[in-house]
Give the backbone structure.
Amino acid sequence: MEKNSKIAVLGGSGLLGSAVKKVLNKQGFESIHSPRSSEIDLLEKSRIEDYLEAERPENIFMVAGLVGGILGNNTRPADFLYQNSMMILNLLEGIRKFSPKSKLLFTGSTCIYPKENPQPINEDRFMCGKLEETNKGYAVAKGLGIVACQLYRKQHGLDTICAMPTNMYGLNDTYDLENGHMIPGLIKKFLVAKRDNGKVTLWGSGNPRREALYSEDCANALVYLMENYSSEKIVNIGTGYDYSIKEIAEIIKGETGGECKIEWDSSRPDGTFEKRTDIFRLKEIYSEFNPRSLKEGVREILDNKREVERILQD
Ligand code: GFB
């Protein structure tokens, strides 16, 4: 990418999209366009086609999507399937017709892998087994997106690449306790418990294991891949090590400085037991990739006054 390349970030107001814009800005890219969903609804084919015909961005980061945590996914599986499938299909068709020189980076998710895997999970595990029920709709849509990118590359010669980020958190996250992801949910629960002198109720057994990737570290990898990678082979983006949910809770509790009691609600789902990523391929491409620890990432969030205010207001 040249510093004046026309770059589109779709989903630029979300957790990952805002981090991608921040990284691009930091690296001196000057022409970043991030249309809001009110400007371009990716579910409306004609709107995305009009946009691509008018703008013809040289690089497109496709990080838009309907996202949520274990409960959001499990409650609205058809919405997660439909919206995420249609968005990437509409975009690929639009690129093919109106902007075939655009390079597209599509983000999937590590939930595309089967429920059970040898750990860590290598990219070749894609389509090798049964999916986890709680996020089947999202996983099938993201899997479809990957295959679509590969087939548009094969048949139409589009320059598409696909990255699979693991569980993420960071500034500008969504702190929705019912439908959101686990790490922002825990950060909010511990902050509220500290403020109110209350207890914290967490879900499941606390035994499942998850990675914790800071959104800006993921964004650094995405920008690097956009500049240095072109292949149909998907690339995991993770830290390569995981924690039990209990360990994550202790780290967040320690950083928020609360003394609260933790209770576990076993009526809530555990989901996939473990999904640690194999990041060998990413490190081969981007050897300097060095994501921060959960403790460091949580500290950055807690040191940001505006974010903390937002968390407590939501
Ligand atoms: O991030 P999360 O909701 O989804 O994490 P997944 C769920 C895990 O955290 C389960 C436990 O083991 C939950 O039982 N947990 C404990 C909690 N307390 C809480 C809490 O307060 N809130 C939440 N949300 N969980 C996601 C997919 O799966 O993985 C996404 O939903 C995406 O679509 C992402 O693919 C990578 O980690 O299970």
